[in-house]
Amino acid sequence: MSYQHTALEEPFHGVPAVWLRFAGYEAAVIPSVGANLVAFRDTEYGYRFLREPEADGMEEFLSSPAVFGIPFLFPPNRYEDGKFPWKGTTYELPINEPKTNNHLHGFLHNVPWNLEEYGSSEAESYVILTQQVDEEHPMYAFLPFTFTIQLRYSLDAFGLRQQYTIVNQGEEAMPNLFAFHTAINAPFAPGSSAEDYRIKVTIGERIELSDRSLPTGSLQQLSAEEEALKGEGINPYFEEMDHHYTAAPQNGRNYMSLTDTRVGATLIYDVGTSYKHWMIWNNKACGQFICPEPQMNRVNAPNLQGIAAEEAGLIALQPGEIFEQTARLYCIQQAAE
After folding, report:
1. Which of 174, 179, 178 is closest to 317 using CA atoms?
2. Among 216, 192, 134, which residue's Cα sits nearest to residue 337?
3. What is d(CA 15, CA 11) in angstroms, rounded to the nearest whole number?
4. I need a surface site. Which of 32, 133, 154, 166 has the fewest CB within 10 A?
5. C-alpha torsion sign, points 270, 273, 274, 280
6. What b/e readout covers 268-294, taking b as 16+ CB neighbours within 10 angstroms?
């Protein structure tokens, strides 16, 4: 079978997007809404790996992009009372989750990104998007640091590659706290049901959260089901999950695997070992999608007491320094059980 390798601007349900196609895979990125990669598909088997907004659901996507595709969060998750202490200064983030009086999900998942470049070759199809934060950027009023973030998505014969790069262009150390709120379909294969799926994630310990969804300072023993989650795998909807865990790489890899036992396909989300934590959310065990979210920092990390910065993922980027992390989504097709 021959495939067309392309990268082109083409609408996604009426919204400007960049489509990548390569070797039986296709993906779509919407630069104007947080550089969200809203679709990743295997066109040969008809798999749709990510939770995509449908044509009649674009209004919901535009108002709540964090629950579709791969949204980028910076800084991620919740900050108590909007407070963000850093190097002797406490910055005030807007309270955008009134029920908990927290700041949630940062500033970059729902704003326009710059479309820098896209293209295709015999090796890959790719797109590059950037976010430049300086005195003119709305985020600067809350976190006054100067930096550039680059997201590079590419398709090749092995699947989808995601590359995150940040450059500190300021004169002081800045926080490098980020996550991807990745929403994965389960089921992703036509004709399969939620009961056909098993998920494994390289979690370590569960971090206890308060009724404000903030760490209490305690770690919890994993349940038998959670032991299966990090071991042989378990159905993604075994219980309602909005859980926070430390990351514990296995065999040098920090990853999620999601297997459709009916068709014999396993989706791998290999995120890299820089991530210190996972959030796992399954929307009240909805039976449709699950979000295994690789997260650099523990929730509310700048406000936590009695925990080392490295353990909390409270990572500083010095002036002129560059940080980079690569992840990959790919599918292994095998014999069904």
Report:
1. 174
2. 192
3. 5
4. 32
5. positive
6. bbbbbebbbbbbbbbbeeebebbbbbb
Q: Which residue has the tokens 């970059």?
A: 108
Residue 238 and residue 198: Cα distance in Å, rounded? 10
Maximum pairwise Cα distance, the chain: 60
Nearest to 162 by CA among 329, 4, 287, 331: 329
Contact 263, 336 (CB under 8 A): yes
Residue identified by tokens 């979000």 is: 291
DSSP 3-state of 32: coil
**Cα R_g (the chain), whole angstroms:** 19
pLDDT per position as a tens digit, 208-256: 999 999 999 999 999 999 999 999 999 999 999 999 999 999 999 999 9
